[in-house]
Amino acid sequence: MSKDLGDSEKPLTPHTVSARDSGRAQVAHGNGHSAVIRQSADVFREPLKAEQQASTAIRMSKLNAWYGDFQALKNIELCIPEKSVTAFIGPSGCGKTTLLRWINRMNDTVPEARAGGELKIHDLDVLAPRTDVVELRRRVGMVFQKPNPFPKSIFENVAFGPRLHYRASRSELADLVEWALRKSALWDEVKDRLKQSALGLSGGQQQRLCIARAIAVGPEVLLMDEPCSALDPRSTLAVEELISELSNEYTIVIVTHNMQQAARASSTTAYLFEGELIETGPTHQVFTKPSNPETEKYITGRLG
Ligand SMILES: Nc1ncnc2c1ncn2[C@@H]1O[C@H](COP(=O)(O)OP(=O)(O)OP(=O)(O)O)[C@@H](O)[C@H]1O
Ligand SMILES: [Mg+2]
Q: What are the phi and psi torsion angles at 246 (to 5°)?
């Protein structure tokens, strides 16, 4: 439990900045990066507690999506629990990225893409035309397969979003950048080279920088599309540990082709096939006792 600090002593996080800016009642999250990284010998993460299962962050109902005439998602019914990791798995082309990209309306940029049905993040109606997409993307950050830092300094990569969204002073911004880099387990590696180009970092460091950039604006949800597929095993482990750590505070949705990763990193797994949600449930159950033979075929490598 974090100690109750006076306002002036409170560490600056996007949450405290936005609270100062907008006057909205928001809670500052802890005191920055915790050294405790979950190291479980178990293959599977612990099952979700009842209260986590009960609390849904993202709700999809009769969600359909098309690219022109091609239907890429068919009647998806899915509840994604809050503050935990949900994995989307399934063979190439089954619609994982499409589903992820509708959660923050990234598909708005694809002219022939359209979607219908219900997609809600808490009370926010994601697909409604009136929804403020800039604010939606602040609430729902995204990390891509290939690390994509801006061709700017390490500091500027992380400061970019907060500058866009908050009126923060220079020192507040510096605190916020440090907070996000610590939270992303990157601070110690970059603290002496913040002004150097982000492009000089290794792939694994760049991916953690992209995670720092995503959390710096105070999102509720982090979407990750195969975030480790371009990384070596050591960097993969670092990012997986980071995902585990971050899932205490953020709702994380990860797309992966790596079955071990889905088993290790997620609490809930959703299996998609040809645009349909075939099965969803606690990860250990989907992997050890899938209710649908199609899921078993995929997980055991007989499909895809
Ligand atoms: N911009 C687009 N225009 C037309 N069709 C598209 C577009 N993007 C994706 N699709 C099609 O939609 C289907 C789902 O694609 P999607 O990228 O969501 O699959 P995926 O499960 O993420 O696959 P992968 O594992 O290979 O990344 C595929 O048949 C794909 O060809
Ligand atoms: Mg994809």
A: -70, -25
Ligand 1: which of 69, 74, 94, 142 to mutate, judged by most atoms within 8 Å of the beta carbon? 94
Which residue, among 40, 41, 45, 39, has the nearest Cα to 268 in the 3D structure?
A: 45
Q: What is the pLDDT of residues 246-269, one digit of tens each?
A: 999 999 999 999 999 999 999 999
CATH of domain 48-54+81-104+130-299: 3.40.50.300
Q: Nearest CA to 120 among 61, 73, 75?
A: 61
Which ranges in the chain belong to alpha helices (H)?
14-22, 50-54, 96-103, 133-139, 154-165, 170-183, 187-190, 203-215, 233-246, 259-265, 283-288, 293-299
67 lines ligand 1 (CB under 6 A): yes
Q: What is the pLDDT of residues 51-64, one digit of tens each?
A: 666 699 999 999 99
Ligand 1: does its nearest atom lie under 6 Å from the Cβ of 45?
A: no
Quick count: other Cβ atoms within 10 Å of Cβ 9?
A: 9
CA of residue 284 to ligand 1 center, whole Å: 27
Q: What CA–CA distance (Å, rounded) separates 108 from 34? A: 37
Ligand 1 neighbour 95 (Cβ under 6 A): yes
Give the number of other Cβ atoms within 10 Å of residue 4's Cβ.
7
Strands 113-121 and 124-125: antiparallel
Percent of the chain with pLDDT over 90: 76
Enter the pTM of the model.
0.86
Indicate which atom in ligand 1 lies nearest the CA of residue 70: 5
CA 298 to chain centre: 24
- The overall average pLDDT reported for the chain is 86
| DSSP track, 63-82 | EEEEETTEEEEEEEEEEEES
Domain boundaries, the chain: 48-54+81-104+130-299
**What is the mean predicted confidence (pLDDT) over 73-89?**
97
89 CA from centroid of ligand 2 (Å): 10
